[in-house]
Amino acid sequence: MRYKTVAIVLIAIFTGLLMINYVLDTGPQTLEEQEIYSQTRSLMDTTVTISVVNSNETSAIEIIDRAFEKISYVDELMNNYDNSSEISILNSEGEVTNADPELVSVISRSTYYSEKSNGAFDISIQPILDLWASKYAPGGTNQPPTSDEINETLKLVNYSAIMIDGNNISMKKGMKITLGGVAKGYAVDAAIESLRSDGITSGFVNAGGDGRYIGTKPDGTQWRVGLQNPDKNGDALTIMDIQDVAVATSGNYERYFSDEAKVSHIADPRTGYPSSNLISSTVIAKTAMDADALATSVFILGQEDGLAMIEELEDVECLIITNDKEIIKSSGFSSYENS
């Protein structure tokens, strides 16, 4: 999706999570003949799967359709590559009046992540991303930006300069924001709320690795989620039993600004340079947007500071893979792992 291009930094690596054994049995499993109904579509430039537990196929498909419609709406609203979107207007004009309340809410929540991560998460990172991307675009130097270029561009990166007054949003001239680190997670959360409003109490939404899971499978067991081993494609590093939480992973072992440069696509908004502190970070949180943003924050902060941040937050856990392939877990992560 637009939030997944090499020019976007604040985003979770989609291949980090694999759904394992979600739907091994889709036939009747309870007296009410509850079944799992699923649909997969391409949205936000990734693969989105929505599954619900229901006793009526026609009803289930209609409910799933409405949830997909909600994801499409979020995609259109927060796509900064669509010149007509409100976020594009904000980036080009420095302000937008009477903004959609959902956009206002997401930008406001993003400030929370910035504060909790001491600036490691910052939606105003877009100018730095544009600078790096320009160097490896056709006609570019194929060399990293100079320190002077980075320092000058960093003057435009400052989440505290994004002002919200009611439904009006403004920022300093030249600043640009990207919601790549939260839009997909927010879309997953919005789809889950759509399912709940239609009476669904069990199911999940997984958008390219950002997943949120509610209730249980028809047989009463929890949803099972596998974390991919970065060394072995398709192999699960660990398996989690998940219920009423979300999971997201951020990492640098899949995507780069360029194949030649092999620099991480995740940059540190405090320095302007790519982050290479970890191989990946996986976060479990109550919402997909929280998991999405916090996974990126941990990845940029690194093992010590990232883990310290997670331990201070309630109902949030993480698993870190260091550059030397050591696995570090927060104090409560193991409670989710399948024994």
TrEMBL record:
Cofactor(s) demanded: Mg(2+)
Enzyme class: transferase
Keyword Transmembrane helix carried by entry: yes
SUPFAM superfamilies the record matches: ApbE-like
Gene Ontology molecular function: metal ion binding; transferase activity
Keyword terms of this UniProt record: FAD, Flavoprotein, Lipoprotein, Magnesium, Membrane, Metal-binding, Transferase, Transmembrane, Transmembrane helix
The name this protein goes by in its record: FAD:protein FMN transferase
